[in-house]
Amino acid sequence: MSTSGQTYKELALPYFKEVFDIIDKVLVKEGIPYYLIGATAIALEFLNEGKKPPRGTRDIDFALMLSSMAEYDHIVSDLKEYGFNSVEAPWTLYHEKYDVAIDLLPFGKIEENDTESFNKRYSDLHVLGLREVLEDAIEILIEDKVAKIPPLAGMIILKLVAWSDRPEERDNDLTDILKIIELSYEHDWDDIVESHFDLLDQLDETAGQLKISARVLGRKAREYLLKSETLSNRILSLMEEQLSNADSSGIARQWALSKDIDLELAMAILKEFETGLKEDGRLF
């Protein structure tokens, strides 16, 4: 566990402390494992590395490891006693006083035990990848609480799944992925030198750091694909589609726009990530 001791003030997310305290109180009482995912988790990892966190958000995403729909409904009922209210999306709650929305994404045995009711209620919610990624969750201390968050490579996988589900609504996912790639070079430098030294010849190239970082993240993300054929098919099909034509690649075009880089370079970064996902017989 990281013990660098981040503070809520440094995270700079309005009312995050109040919301996190409520979530922690309710879920710890019920003995429910939970994880902070999404943009807030990325911001916390940036802080943990001494970097300025990316964009703030009033939407906070949590993944809950549950066994049944009854357990999920009980958690929702408990949270309503603390001022949260239901909205149109069945997995979202809103707190009017704090002006904060939370998404509660159920995964685990609930997907097996209550398949019919789960699929009926969450017909447009996909939790693909949560189980595989969160097996490797890391812990970060934030004042008196411990936040469990996905590793950086896992965050990319979850972001790609979320974006591919609703690309018209989730451009921020792609921006977050590129920021993860930027952060990861320094974050993983010791590991790159020790286990991915075969990539260091790219440092002489333009934007070599981004390409190395993307390749290493792809290599690390591969382990999640190996755990699930469904997840592997989704991500590899997405990569093939996005790399087939630069002009129609939503990922590359968004990266080029947000970072003001050439589309060719954006495609090269994406290609490095895909190559990492497919590499076998690795040094690392």
Topology:
Elements: E1 2-6, H1 8-11, H2 16-30, E2 34-37, H3 39-48, E3 59-65, H4 69-80, E4 84-86, E5 92-95, E6 100-107, H5 110-113, H6 115-121, H7 130-134, E7 138-142, E8 145-149, H8 152-165, H9 171-187, H10 189-195, H11 208-227, H12 229-243, H13 250-259, H14 263-278
Parallel strand pairs: 1-7, 3-6
Antiparallel strand pairs: 2-3, 4-5, 5-6, 7-8
Helix pairs in contact: 8-9, 8-11, 9-11, 9-13, 11-12, 11-14, 12-14, 13-14
The CATH class of the largest domain, by name, is Alpha Beta
Say what the CATH topology of the largest domain is. Beta Polymerase, domain 2
β content, as a range?
5-15%
> pLDDT under 50 segments (min length 5)?
none
Number of domains: 2
Query: Per CATH, which architecture of the largest domain?
Result: 2-Layer Sandwich
Within the largest sheet, what's the order of strands? 2-3-6-5-4
Shape annotation: globular
- Average pLDDT over all residues: 85
**In terms of structural class, how would the helical and strand content be classed?**
alpha/beta
The major beta sheet can be summarized as: 5 strands, mixed
Distance between the termini: 23 Å
> In which range does the helix fraction lie?
40-55%
Q: State the order of secondary-structure elements, H for helix, E for strand.
A: EHHEHEHEEEHHHEEHHHHHHH
Number of strands: 8
Rg is 19 Å
Number of helices: 14
